[in-house]
Amino acid sequence: MMLELDVRSYLIIAINFLVKLWVPLYFSRLSTFLDNSILFSTFINSFKSLKEGLFLINKLEINPYDGDIINHPPLLLSFFTLLNRDNSDFIYELIYAITDSIILVKLLNFNNLLKEKNKNEKEFNDEDYENEFRNEKIDEINNDNDNKIRNDRNGDYFHDFNVVLFYCFNPLILLSFFSKSTIIFTNLFIILMLNNLLTKNYTLSILQLSICSYLSYFPLYLIFPILNYIYQDIKSIKKIIKYLIFFIIFILLLSTLNFCFGFQKVINNCYLSIILFKKIQPNLGLWWYFFIEIFEFFNNFYIGLFNMYSFIMILPFTYKFNKEPMISLFLCISWIILTKNYPVIGDLNMFSLLILTIGSPLINFLQIPLLLINIVLFVVLVLLVLFYYLWMDLNSGNSNFFYGVGLVYNILIGFAIIDFTWSQLSKTWYEENHIEIHDDEERKIIKLTQI
Amino acid sequence: MNLGGVIIYVVLVLATFVVSQEQLIESNDDSRHTNNWAVLISTSRFWFNYRHMANVLSMYRTVKKLGIPDSQIILMLADDIACNPRNAFPGSVFNNADRAIDLYGDNIEVDYRGYEVTVENFIRLLTDRWGPEQPSSKRLLTDERSNIFIYMTGHGGDEFLKFQDAEEISSYDLADAFEQMYEKKRYNEIFFMIDTCQANTMYTKFYSPNILAVGSSRLNESSYSHHSDIEIGVAVIDRFTYFNLDFLENIDKNSNKTIQDLIDSYTFENIHSHAGVRKDLFKRDLSNVLITDFFGNVQKVVIDEPDEDILYIANHDENGNYVNKTFVTVEEDDLKIKKHEIDVKFDSSDEVTNNPIHSVEKTGRILLILIAVIWLISSYKFI
């Protein structure tokens, strides 16, 4: 857990914490403005409804799940009630800033763990391990603490400093933070879970997965890749069943608060409204357009279809990449992000953080360069905001514009997922055939195609 | 003078009394209605028929002003004027170029709007032949003691009235509908007013009793609009309706003016067409029929003319001293009591036991601590 970073990284982490603590206090309208924006918060993760729930519980003492407004699970409300009885802004900022810093620190930890694992595997797998010089060079680059930003990535993973810079200066991460969307808690627990998988603390990671899926519904699907990961390590079915039972117990434990609020109501508000897509709201995702344009006769069909679509690639990814379970986790999380029904930019941030850490050895083998995806993403984000404004405020465009750009956004993420899959497959092929690719020119010699 | 003659004389005198009593009963011109309804329908749509919408909305306003409640008014409009993109005064409909009154206002209740204004719906409305799904706010729930005022405006012709450019209603349809209403005892008296071209032809085929009809123009005669507004760009009111409203503006709930006065106010110089009346089906003499029999509502209150000056009584006490009653002192205890009454209780449902919210907090706290404990334990790999 102890990170060895250079002074600059520590400085940036500290400044990041302070900025994220103080800026929303002084620019409080920023948070409201971003919270109202459709890119950053939807019904299930908006800060407004969280505050509303807390108000209903604390001041008015009514059951917040009576109506349809609050979609946050009761334990989250309870957590905030415990810490923030007086509804002071500062404590909200503090909680969010601390969460953000924990994410950053754990991200660095994760990156380092991945580097170590990669090094160990390389030493372990490489039978022709003669190129000691090359590995030493990689070590030197990875542990190089007093240097400039590295653009050349002879090592497979990004340098700590780069990770810190990426996280602290990424505008999307900043904006998603300032919008105080509660997706940040889901992201926190996903990162914690991934960390604990690498440190082989499986119970804790199952606990974190259960919290994560309790907060939002979709990480529930990740139980499959995680059990696969544990199996790859332990290789005993009994223990897998043990962990599965732990998972179920933890979920039930977390759900005990539901009974106090009316079990049916809580399930209705928090989970059924996600599964059955009860609140049809235009957002970045794929689902909403269908439900406003089709006949009501087909509603149930499409709900079933989209839910299946969301689940359908989890098991194939798990099975195909069962020897590289971290990759299967990466692809499964990305698939969930693509096919969620209420996606926000916070999900895109999760995706980019995963690319930064797990996906970084795969970047060499990508067919579409990441730069291109980023440029198109930039255009798409501008257009999303523009077309939403045009549609809602100026009453000049219509839903088709916004959904069109939303489709492009989803295609981007879809292409990225496909590309990373391809990248992983070609990397596996190279490793199996003991071909070493050192740089771009060598990469151009062999062209792999899929049959 | 024998006894027989005296007896016959006495009998004859008594008979005349009896007969005259019956005549008195027959010619008792007090209406026997107990409630008033109004059906106001504009059968045209589109911007250039602004005046028809304004006609109906003016009648609606008048009828409401004189006391008929919304629950007893059926308003059928295409309702495409106020929010029409061509409306220079969005959300407003005026019936006069001085734009003094906004007819669209805040609380008009349109029962049938847009494409619901059809011949079928109109006839069903009159005869009350609906399936069970029709809400009662859209039905004409009249009985045999109801006086109904029916006002129609739009584009019409020789024995027909055009409904929204798609269909027509003929005078025969209307007459048959009224006959069905009579058979089903759905009205006491009907006052039928129609303001279209060749309007008088529409009431020629009525054959049910107790219907009084007025129309704005004869066969082969057009009804004209009164004036238009430069800024709105179209005509805002029709002549016949304008002069009706002119008369009705001076009527209040206690007025004693009669229908005959109304009809006398129709002149060719004003309306520029020959207004017609059909009164042969109507049993009462028009000079005994009050305007408020149709345009107002039967009042359940009696207006009392007070002898004394209420303003004086309100501001002076018994001894004649001036008492300023604008500032009222409220006891603090009263306020406190009121605060307690506004306590909102935790909502209890059938499935949940009546747990107050504090136990929820406790449970939540315990749960969080439990989760933290499990976290700590599992991070030390005991499990």
TrEMBL record, chain A:
Keywords: Endoplasmic reticulum, GPI-anchor biosynthesis, Membrane, Transmembrane, Transmembrane helix. This is GPI transamidase subunit PIG-U. It is found in: Endoplasmic reticulum membrane. It comes from the Eukaryota. It is a multi-pass membrane protein. Belongs to the PIGU family. It comes from Pachysolen tannophilus NRRL Y-2460. One of its GO terms (biological process) is attachment of GPI anchor to protein. The chain crosses the membrane at residues 7-27, 90-109, 172-194, 206-231, 243-267, 287-309, 321-338, 370-389, 401-422. GO terms for cellular component: GPI-anchor transamidase complex. PANTHER family: GPI TRANSAMIDASE COMPONENT PIG-U, PHOSPHATIDYLINOSITOL GLYCAN ANCHOR BIOSYNTHESIS CLASS U PROTEIN. Pathway: Glycolipid biosynthesis; glycosylphosphatidylinositol-anchor biosynthesis.
From TrEMBL, chain B:
The keyword Signal applies. The keyword Signal applies. Residues 1-20 form the signal peptide. GO terms for biological process: attachment of GPI anchor to protein; GPI anchor biosynthetic process; proteolysis. One of its GO terms (molecular function) is GPI-anchor transamidase activity. Keywords: GPI-anchor biosynthesis, Signal. One of its GO terms (cellular component) is GPI-anchor transamidase complex. The active site is at residues 155, 197. Belongs to the peptidase C13 family. This is GPI-anchor transamidase. The lineage of its organism: Eukaryota, Fungi, Dikarya, Ascomycota, Saccharomycotina.
